[in-house]
């Protein structure tokens, strides 16, 4: 009976729409609206996937341009003599690095020890201890690598310390995450006599081998010091929003192994 009722309803509705111009007009208008909305949703879905591909292409192109700039700077340094009275030409070793573009495929921000997984590995030139950055600033350091993937230990991990410095004074200290908020980290070992202000910018000092000097780290958000303390308690707002991180660049510092080896020999 229910099936028969539905059939009769459909037949009645069809006859009304077919024979009454007003109802026919309303039906066509409504149906066109529904179809249009379906097209909009459909186009939005396709546009999303097109944008995803476009973002990947832009990341690759951006990385290629950065590598070209580094190469041009290296060539320029070979043209200029190291000293006015010298005929020796040399590329500064700290400038010998390249970028490898990668996509974030897994990321955590709510743990004490967070990690980030990338879609690039050994086959793409990724190695352990390489620095990882994005357009905003420092992300972390490569911890483990497989053939096609790699895992990053980010700033949002209490096991990682990154040495950074004030742009204004050049005074440096280690930055470490407190484990509380993904937006902030603590700057340590800044003595009482150091002058700085809220909003001052921090960049990498170059003392952490994985990162060249000058990459943005964050800005001073808050600081405190007690009369009996020798060092400041400084809260830094990180330059990178780890909740929206999608694409990164892995730094291939070409002279990293040589520098690390020499430093280990000196410690013996």
Q: Give the beta-strand count.
A: 12
Percent in strands: 25-35%
Q: How big is the Rg? A: 29 Å
> What is the ordering of alpha helices and beta strands?
HHEEEEEEEEEEEEH
- The third-level CATH topology of the largest domain is Thrombin, subunit H
C-alpha geometry: globular
Amino-to-carboxy terminus distance = 93 Å
What is this structure, in a nutshell?
With 268 residues, this protein is an alpha+beta fold.
Structure description:
This protein has 268 residues and is of the alpha+beta class. It folds into two domains: 91 residues; 160 residues, Rod shape-determining protein MreC, domain 1 (Thrombin, subunit H, Beta Barrel). Helices cover 33% and strands 26% of the residues. The chain has three helices and twelve strands. Strands 1-2-5-4-3-12 form a six-stranded antiparallel β-barrel. The chain has a six-stranded antiparallel barrel with strand order 6-7-8-11-10-9. Helix 1 packs across helix 2. The longest helix is centred in the first third of the chain and has 59 residues. The radius of gyration is 29 Å and the shape is globular. About 6% of the residues have low confidence.
Key words describing this protein structure:
6-stranded antiparallel barrel, 3 helices, 12 strands, 2 domains, alpha+beta, 268 residues, Thrombin, subunit H
């Amino acid at each position: 009976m229910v099936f028969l009722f539905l059939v009769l309803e459909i037949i009645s509705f069809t006859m009304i729409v077919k024979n009454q111009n007003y109802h026919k007009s309303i039906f066509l208008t409504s149906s066109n609206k529904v179809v249009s909305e379906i097209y909009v949703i459909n186009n939005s879905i396709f546009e999303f996937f097109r944008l995803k591909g476009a973002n990947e292409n832009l990341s690759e192109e951006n990385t290629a341009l950065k590598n070209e700039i580094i190469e041009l700077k290296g060539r320029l340094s070979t043209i200029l003599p190291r000293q006015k009275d010298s005929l020796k030409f040399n590329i500064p070793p700290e400038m010998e690095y390249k970028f490898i573009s990668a996509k974030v495929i897994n990321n955590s921000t709510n743990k004490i020890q967070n990690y980030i997984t990338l879609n690039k590995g050994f086959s793409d030139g990724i190695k352990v201890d390489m620095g990882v950055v994005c357009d905003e600033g420092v992300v972390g350091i490569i911890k483990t690598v497989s053939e096609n993937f790699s895992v990053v230990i980010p700033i949002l991990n209490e096991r990682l310390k990154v040495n950074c410095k004030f742009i204004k004074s050049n005074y440096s200290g280690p930055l470490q995450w407190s484990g509380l908020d993904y937006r902030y980290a603590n700057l340590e070992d800044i003595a009482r006599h150091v002058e700085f202000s809220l909003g001052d910018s921090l960049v990498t000092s170059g003392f952490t081998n994985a990162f060249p000097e000058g990459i943005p780290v964050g800005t001073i958000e808050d600081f405190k010091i007690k009369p009996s303390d020798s060092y400041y308690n400084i809260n830094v707002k990180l330059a990178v929003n780890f909740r929206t991180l999608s694409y990164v660049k892995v730094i291939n510092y070409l002279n990293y192994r040589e520098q690390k080896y020499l430093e280990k020999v000196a410690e013996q």
